[in-house]
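Title: Comparing notes on inverse folding

I've been comparing how different people in this forum approach sequence design from structure. To keep things fair, I'm posting one structure and asking everyone to reply with a full sequence. Here's the target:
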């Protein structure tokens, strides 16, 4: 079973301690619309986070 994941948008934002909570609620709420959200710490600048929106 293959699933294609399409990146819809990516943005770099200032890292905030509770930012993962926003990503979690978006994933729980919008997964039925085939949307997925990701958050990763920027490897070059630890004060930034990379927020990505995907379509599955």
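Reply #1:
Here's my take.
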């Amino acid at each position: 079973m293959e699933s294609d994941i399409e990146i819809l948008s990516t943005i770099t934002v200032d890292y905030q301690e509770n930012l993962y909570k926003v990503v979690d609620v978006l994933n729980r709420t919008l997964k039925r619309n085939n949307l997925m959200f990701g958050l990763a710490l920027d490897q070059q600048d630890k004060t930034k986070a990379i927020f990505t929106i995907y379509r599955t």
